[in-house]
Amino acid sequence: MSRPVPGQIPSPLRPRLVVPVLAGLVFVALAGFIASGHGFAFDRSLILLFREPGNPAQPLGPAWFQEAVRDMTAFGSFVGLFFITTAAALALWLCGYRRLAAGLVLSVLTALLVSNGLKIAIGRERPDIVAHTALTFTASFPSGHAFLSAATMLSIAGCVGIASRRDDIALLCLVLAWVMILLIGLSRIYLGVHWPTDVLGGWSLGVVWSSVATAWIGRWAAASDPG
Question: Of 135, 145, 127, which is closest to residue 182 (Cα–Cα)?
Answer without folding.
Answer: 145
